[in-house]
UniProtKB/TrEMBL annotation:
Pfam families (alphabetical): SWIM
GO molecular function, one term: zinc ion binding
Keywords on record: Metal-binding, Zinc, Zinc-finger
Sequence ranges assigned to domain SWIM-type in this UniProt record: 180-212
Organism of derivation: Lactuca virosa
InterPro entries linked to this entry: Znf_PMZ (IPR006564), Znf_SWIM (IPR007527)
Key word Zinc-finger present: yes
Protein's name according to its UniProt entry: SWIM-type domain-containing protein
Recorded superkingdom: Eukaryota
Length: 268
């Protein structure tokens, strides 16, 4: 994360869940404990949704070097594993660094003076929001395309799963010696993927197909509906005239900072 940005985000969004970028964590971890074994186990612990599997992977690391777990507990106190994620955001990303994505999006504009930078960002956001509103007009049905594609993909691979029904909304799904319990009315599965992503996991999909319920949309979180997508981009950013048309204001004149040449040879 960019220097200073972490403090700013904590200040602006004090009550939201803050997660740590796993690539940065692994990069710092390798400086202390290098090797493919540690990297594989750490990534596995970050990706898993299950607390039991997470604990097993960390124990395998501690069995080799106990100091590795001590290092993690001391230096990486934020949430970095899916098994600790909250279920309200319906986002399970562990590798998405929003600051780097934003820098890539604005490109060379970030080197502009603050006023020019803010105006350029406003213009880019205005165009982006309008494009999203135009895009959603082409969609049909209840769900956004990414949710539709997900349901279509998992519905093709249900043959290897076996359903042991308990009641109308509860069952066990078995496959290759493993078993998961599914609760349709609560939108819960013991694999925990459904709760975190908001999209039906393959175990829940197996049970839904078994019940012959054709209304799969009701088992997907509302954030994946076209209605919510429209609400997210319903606001409008008003256009602005050029700087030469702005009203002049009285006040202190702001000068550019004095640039001093640093000591040593300039960096390339």
């Amino acid at each position: 994360m960019q220097k200073g940005l972490e403090v700013a985000i904590m200040h602006v969004y004090p009550n939201v869940e803050h997660r740590e970028y796993i690539r940065h964590l692994c990069s710092n971890f390798k400086k202390q404990f290098c090797g493919a074994f540690f990297s594989k186990k750490l990534w596995g612990a970050a990706k898993t949704y299950l607390p039991t599997k997470h604990a097993i992977l960390l124990k395998e690391i501690s069995d080799v070097i106990q100091d590795a777990i001590t290092y993690l507990n001391k230096n990486h106190t934020q949430i970095w594993s899916r098994r600790k994620f909250g279920t309200s955001s319906k986002c399970d990303y562990i590798t998405n660094n929003i600051s780097e994505s934003f820098n890539s999006w604005i490109g060379v504009l970030r080197y502009q003076p603050v006023l020019d930078l803010l105006d350029a960002i406003r213009e880019k956001l205005m165009e982006r929001v309008d494009k999203k509103r135009m895009l959603v007009k082409k969609w049909n049905g209840v769900l956004v395309p990414i949710a539709k594609n997900h349901l279509n993909d998992i519905s093709k691979n249900l043959g290897q799963y076996e359903v042991c029904r308990s009641c109308d909304n509860q069952d066990e799904v078995k496959c290759k010696g493993k078993r998961w319990d599914v609760y349709l009315d609560e939108r819960k599965c013991s694999c925990r993927v459904w709760q975190f992503r908001g999209l039906t996991c393959i175990h829940a999909a197996t049970f839904i197909a078994f019940t012959r319920d054709v209304n799969w949309e009701k088992y997907v979180d509302s954030c994946y509906t076209i209605k919510k997508y429209k609400e997210a981009y319903a606001f409008e950013i008003a256009p602005m005239p050029g700087a030469d048309q702005w009203k002049q204001q009285d006040g202190d004149k702001i000068y550019s900072p004095i640039i001093k040449r640093p000591i040593g040879r300039p960096k390339k």
